């Protein structure tokens, strides 16, 4: 662009610098503005296009994507089911306009506005901007071929990420790839424990805050392994008030259970605090895991812990963290209730005792009545459950934050997510690598949420407390703002039936409209401290203010949010001081990985070469000639440097010499069987299947003739009633 040689830093360009600048073509002008917008950090879209009587373009302009305003009909649609998209059109006036000069035969800049009314995207957010996301023709062609070969779109996306060296270097998002393919339709696996530890040691070169620890037995075989990167340690500093962990199986060929320690971040999404591979699930093993976890986190204890009720976990927590509030997963308790108490309706009553908040006396009365009603007074399991009620009953746990959940569903969903990347045939080092890939994918999703919160604002519904709603929208992440707004909406069903005004505080009694049996709540507002609390303890338990608080705020005509109900863990800005690079987790000093990076470095150019060769037989023939010459030259170069490369690569694996691969272990999920029991079980015939409708064998309820006949008769009866 010789004609557009401005000679000034793009961030310092003003209107007087650009007006009068000439471009050879409109494409050159458009390319300039796109490059300029990417450097500054905003997205561009085409604006006006004027043509003369002959249909030739004479004027072209581009504007910021935040230009203009969204039409009201798209926001105030009463039949809308989904949440509207975040607002980005906020009236930005930045633009760029060029006109064609008949005299010079060039395109001249007539108007340039550089000022924006919104924040610019950072370097880690620029690849989310719409005008800078585009899948190249060569990569789209490759994706189509891989799709035809049977690869899933998500797998193709992961391949592009690996080839290009990071999520932000692909040039488009995962959804863009899905859309592009949809539019087209519409139109070193045997390495041992030494390399596993070398993998972790190599992380320290990239991440000085990386932490790992391992344990070996008397045979120098690896038994336990714990690791966490700097991002996990930073997340724990911010969101370590609640910890949950569980083990999962079939993640590596040594059959070592994988322990994932998780929490929730400011978006309410799962964040990982650390991983561990263990040989067994004894109390001593979990004690070692928690010791290394606390060592990694500088002895900072969580406020609460949520587990599945495993006795080994309970023992380790009692020994190391006696002051931490410990909760047992409600799902596991109810599942065990089905096995130990065979009375219909017992599980429903127990669920109410677990999740509803009663006084201690009322809880005991309801417990004794439940045992009496379902003949469980002498049930040993029920007695043991009652003795541990302080670990599962909301009556005893209300006021403690467990990540907004009473079950280990966050752990289970995280285990299920990691299973996409893990397999029981993977060697240890590759299992660790795949854990890193899964963690990078998880953080990429978090980074997208952060960018969306930073670059857009949620559409306000204008509830009865619009000022409060707007304040929460400006400081809270979108996910948590929606949770708060739900409480504001629900507060409209509640009324203040009594208001006591004391010297320094106000006490409001809240009642639900037309629900006399619904418990009344008391909300206290301290006028001097500007603090508000409710005796339902929703704020302390869930982390967000309850509907009773908003009902009291409306009654007291408060226009500002009380300071104590704003939790720092939900703020948009709480992680701005540190954002980990998502592709930093994918680096690994290993010969196979080094060769993969070399392949990735030339892959884009190779795809482009193949794309052009495909266009015509003449181009293909010339390409084959060039490729043949190049291959002969490169083969000679590889032979010359081959011995030197082998020497360098072999030296990488000598860091942890002598550590042997662990023995395959039997997991707790399936008890070991003796040879005699295995023989007996193989000799036994399969148990006959019994239909639950007619109680006969040989079929199930899906193809039961009795069931089908009853359904037909019921349908005939319904037809008769309709007539």
Strand order of the largest sheet: 6-7-10-9-8-11-12
Distance between the termini: 80 Å
User: Could you say which structural class the secondary elements and strand pairing correspond to?
Assistant: alpha+beta
Number of helices: 24
Percent of residues in helices: 40-55%
What profile does the largest beta sheet have?
7 strands, mixed
Q: Strand content of the residues, in percent?
A: 5-15%
Which radius of gyration do the C-alpha atoms yield?
Answer: 32 Å
Task: Give the strand tally.
Answer: 16
Shape: globular
**Which ranges are low-confidence, i.e. pLDDT below 50, for 5 or more consecutive residues?**
578-597, 643-655, 681-686, 714-723
Mean pLDDT across the residues is: 82
Could you characterize what this model shows?
This protein is α+β, with helices and mostly antiparallel strands. Helices cover 43% and strands 14% of the residues. It has 24 helices and 16 strands. It has helices at 15-18, 26-40, 137-148, 153-164, 174-186, 193-206, 230-239, 283-296, 311-320, 330-340, 346-355, 360-373, 380-387, 394-397, 409-418, 428-455, 466-475, 478-490, 538-542, 547-556, 591-613, 617-651, 675-683, 705-722, and strands at 22-23, 44-51, 57-64, 95-100, 107-113, 211-216, 222-228, 242-248, 258-264, 270-277, 304-307, 325-328, 494-501, 505-512, 521-526, 531-534. The chain has a 7-stranded mixed sheet, with helices on both faces. The chain has a 5-stranded antiparallel sheet with strand order 1-5-4-3-2. A hairpin with a 5-residue loop joins strand 9 (258-264) and strand 10 (270-277). The termini are far apart. Mean pLDDT is 82; it is low at 578-597, 643-655, 681-686 and 714-723.
């Amino acid at each position: 662009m010789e004609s557009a040689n401005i000679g000034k830093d793009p961030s310092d360009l003003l209107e007087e610098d650009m007006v009068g600048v000439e471009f050879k073509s409109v494409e050159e002008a458009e390319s300039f503005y796109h490059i300029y917008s990417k450097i500054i950090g905003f997205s561009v879209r085409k604006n006006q296009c004027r043509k003369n009587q002959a249909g030739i373009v004479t004027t072209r302009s581009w504007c910021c994507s935040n230009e203009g305003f969204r039409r009201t009909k798209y926001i105030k649609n009463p039949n809308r089911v989904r949440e509207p998209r975040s607002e980005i059109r906020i009236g930005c006036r930045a633009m760029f306009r060029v006109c064609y000069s008949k005299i010079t035969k060039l395109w001249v800049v007539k108007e340039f506005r550089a000022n924006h009314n919104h924040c610019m995207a950072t370097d880690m957010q620029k690849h989310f901007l719409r005008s800078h996301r585009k899948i190249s023709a060569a990569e789209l062609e490759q994706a189509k071929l891989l799709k035809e070969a049977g690869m899933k779109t998500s797998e193709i996306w992961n391949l592009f990420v690996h080839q290009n060296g990071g999520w932000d270097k692909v040039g488009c998002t995962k959804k863009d790839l899905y859309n592009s393919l949809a539019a087209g339709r519409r139109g070193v696996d045997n390495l041992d424990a030494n390399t596993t530890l070398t993998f972790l040691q190599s992380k320290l070169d990239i991440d000085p805050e990386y932490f790992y620890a391992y344990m070996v037995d008397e045979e120098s075989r690896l038994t336990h392994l714990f690791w966490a990167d700097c991002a996990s340690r930073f997340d724990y500093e911010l969101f370590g008030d609640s910890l949950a962990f569980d083990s999962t199986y079939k993640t590596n060929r040594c059959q070592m259970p994988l322990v994932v320690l998780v929490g929730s971040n400011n978006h309410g999404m799962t964040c990982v605090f650390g991983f561990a591979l263990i040989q067994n699930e004894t109390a001593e093993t979990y004690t070692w895991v928690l010791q290394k976890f606390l060592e990694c986190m500088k002895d900072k204890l969580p406020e609460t812990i949520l587990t599945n009720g495993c006795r080994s976990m309970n023992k380790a927590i009692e020994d190391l963290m006696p002051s931490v509030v410990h909760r047992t997963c409600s799902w596991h308790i109810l599942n065990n209730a089905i096995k130990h108490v065979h009375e219909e309706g017992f599980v429903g009553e127990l669920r109410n005792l677990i999740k509803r908040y009663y006084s201690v006396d009322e809880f005991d009365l309801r417990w004794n009545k439940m045992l009496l009603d379902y003949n469980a007074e002498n049930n040993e399991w029920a007695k043991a459950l009652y003795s541990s009620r302080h670990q599962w009953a909301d009556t005893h746990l209300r006021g403690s934050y467990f990540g907004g959940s009473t079950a280990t569903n966050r752990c289970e969903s995280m285990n299920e997510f990691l299973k996409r990347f893990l397999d029981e045939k993977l060697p240890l080092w590759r299992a660790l690598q795949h854990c890193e890939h899964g963690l990078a994918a998880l953080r990429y999703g978090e980074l997208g949420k952060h960018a969306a919160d930073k670059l857009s604002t949620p559409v306000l519904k204008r509830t009865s407390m619009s000022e409060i709603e707007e304040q929460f929208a400006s400081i809270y992440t979108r996910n948590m703002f929606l949770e708060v707004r739900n409480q504001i909406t629900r507060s409209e069903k509640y009324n203040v039936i009594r208001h006591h005004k004391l010297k320094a505080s106000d006490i409001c009694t809240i009642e639900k409209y037309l629900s006399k049996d619904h418990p009344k709540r008391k909300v206290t507002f301290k006028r001097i401290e500007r603090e508000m609390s409710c005796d339902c303890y929703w704020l302390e338990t869930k982390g967000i203010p309850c509907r009773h608080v908003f009902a009291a705020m409306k009654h007291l005509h408060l226009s500002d949010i009380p300071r104590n109900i704003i939790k720092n863990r939900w703020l948009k800005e709480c992680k701005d001081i540190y954002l980990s690079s998502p592709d930093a987790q994918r680096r690994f000093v290993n010969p196979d990985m080094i060769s993969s990076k070399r392949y990735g470095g030339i892959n884009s150019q190779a795809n482009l070469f193949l794309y052009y060769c495909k266009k015509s037989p003449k181009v293909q023939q010339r390409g084959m000639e060039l490729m043949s010459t190049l291959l002969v030259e490169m083969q000679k170069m590889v032979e010359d440097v081959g011995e030197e490369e082998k020497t360098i690569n072999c030296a990488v694996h000598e860091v942890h010499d002598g550590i042997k691969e662990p023995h395959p272990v039997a997991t707790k999920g399936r008890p070991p069987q003796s040879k005699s029991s295995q023989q007996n079980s193989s000799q036994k015939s399969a148990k006959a299947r019994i239909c639950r409708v007619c109680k006969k064998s040989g079929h199930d309820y899906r193809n039961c003739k009795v069931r089908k006949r009853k359904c037909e008769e019921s349908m005939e009866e319904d037809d008769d009633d309709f007539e």
